[in-house]
Amino acid sequence: MSDAKPTVLFVCVHNAGRSQMAAGWLRHLAGDRVEVRSAGSEPAEQINPAAVEAMKEVGIDITGQTPTKLTWDTARESDVIVTMGCGDACPIFPGKRYEDWKLEDPAGKGVDSVRPIRDEIRTRIEGLLAELLPAI
User: Fold this and answer.
1) From edge to edge, which strands make up the β-sheet containing 7-12?
2) What band does 119 get if pLDDT is binned at 50, 70 and 90?
3) Is 12 annotated in the active site?
């Protein structure tokens, strides 16, 4: 049995909202059982403040995260790649597991509008975790 933990990469355009919230949820719910990465095809200067606030409300601090440029190596070294509205900018690597999550973009929205996106991401993360780490 392999004790290598799965690596999940969340990709969106700016790596400032959806992908950062998803990474925060996965780190929170999986602990050290999954390696979590996030990146953007065109990273923003900073994380969306409404995303930070929405996550803080559920006890998850993503303020230390920085939008990161997606690299070929990061994608190649990931087991699961979850894309969130990056369209043609998202790379395709043969043999990877892909999921494309259609989520509203929180850019420019207030925290009231970001909460439902945050909650939908949590539901999807719980489903992904159940597949990656089945109960033994």
Assistant:
1) 35-40, 7-12, 80-83, 97-100
2) very high
3) yes
Residues linked to residue 12 through DSSP beta bridges, in sequence order: 40
The predicted-structure confidence for 25-38, as pLDDT tens digits, reads as follows 999 999 999 999 99
Q: Find out whether 120 and 103 touch, Cβ atoms under 8 Å.
A: yes
State pLDDT tens for residues 37-84: 999 989 999 999 999 999 999 999 999 999 999 998 998 899 999 999
- Active-site residue, selected from the candidate residues 11, 12, 55, 60: 12
In this structure, what token pair is assigned to residue 45?
Answer: 């200067």
CA 54 to CA 70: how far, in whole Å?
24
Q: Which of 13, 90, 117, 125 is catalytic?
A: 90
Rounded to an integer, what distance in angstroms lies between the CA atom of residue 76 and that of residue 96? 8
User: Per the structure block, which two tokens stand in for 57?
Assistant: 């409300």
Beta strands in 1-136 (DSSP E): 7-12, 35-40, 80-83, 97-100
Is the alpha carbon torsion for 132, 55, 86, 78 positive or negative?
A: negative
Q: Which two tokens stand for residue 80?
A: 């699961």
